[in-house]
């Protein structure tokens, strides 16, 4: 059975929930995804927990396929692009930094708690964490 998307309106905005765990806003051509956790297997392996390494490859392929299908003007990652700053090697960092060019779209990241301390280029970063009042 083919999975289909679910369209609904929130106030005056049409939203499309995709079976690939993403949300598309047709009017603004924005694609939203979250909780990708790149480098998760490597982080667990560094801590003695065996996991296969194919999750990053699968996540990059999923993102590429969604972008190819919907042609968004902007890909917005709503936190936790990475699993940990300690699991980012040179290859993973380069793959992420090459995303805007590879996907031919703007990429923005709203920092999640797992992204803190992860320095990357070519992606606009928003840090909207709450700060304590003095």
What's the SSE blueprint?
Elements: E1 6-10, E2 13-18, E3 22-25, E4 30-33, H1 40-46, H2 54-70, E5 74-78, H3 90-97, H4 99-103, E6 106-110, E7 124-126
Parallel strand pairs: 4-5, 5-6, 6-7
Antiparallel strand pairs: 1-2, 2-3, 3-4
Summarize the structure.
The protein is α/β, with parallel strands linked by helices. It has helices spanning 40-46, 54-70, 90-97, 99-103; strands at residues 6-10, 13-18, 22-25, 30-33, 74-78, 106-110, 124-126.
Q: Features of this protein?
A:
134 residues, Purple Acid Phosphatase, chain A, domain 2, seven-stranded mixed beta sheet, 4 helices, 28% helix
Tell me about this structure.
- The protein has a domain at 35-126: Purple Acid Phosphatase, chain A, domain 2.
- 28% of the residues lie in helices and 24% in strands.
- The protein is of the alpha/beta class and 134 residues long.
- It has helices spanning 40-46, 54-70, 90-97, 99-103, and strands at 6-10, 13-18, 22-25, 30-33, 74-78, 106-110, 124-126.
- Strand 2 and strand 3 form a beta hairpin.
- The protein is built from 4 helices and 7 strands.
- The mean pLDDT is 88.
- The chain is globular.
């Amino acid at each position: 059975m083919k999975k289909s998307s679910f369209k609904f309106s929130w106030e005056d905005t049409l939203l499309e929930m995709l079976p690939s765990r993403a949300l598309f806003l047709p009017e603004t051509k924005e694609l939203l995804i979250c909780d990708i956790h790149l480098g998760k297997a490597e982080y667990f392996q560094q801590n003695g927990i065996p996991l296969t390494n194919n999750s990053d490859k699968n996540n990059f392929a999923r993102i590429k396929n969604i972008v190819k299908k919907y042609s968004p003007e902007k890909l917005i990652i709503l936190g936790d692009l990475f699993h940990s700053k300690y699991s980012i090697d040179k290859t993973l960092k380069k793959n992420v930094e090459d995303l805007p060019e590879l996907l031919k779209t703007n990429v923005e990241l709203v920092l999640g708690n797992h992204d803190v301390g992860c320095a990357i280029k070519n992606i606009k970063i928003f840090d909207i964490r709450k700060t304590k009042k003095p």
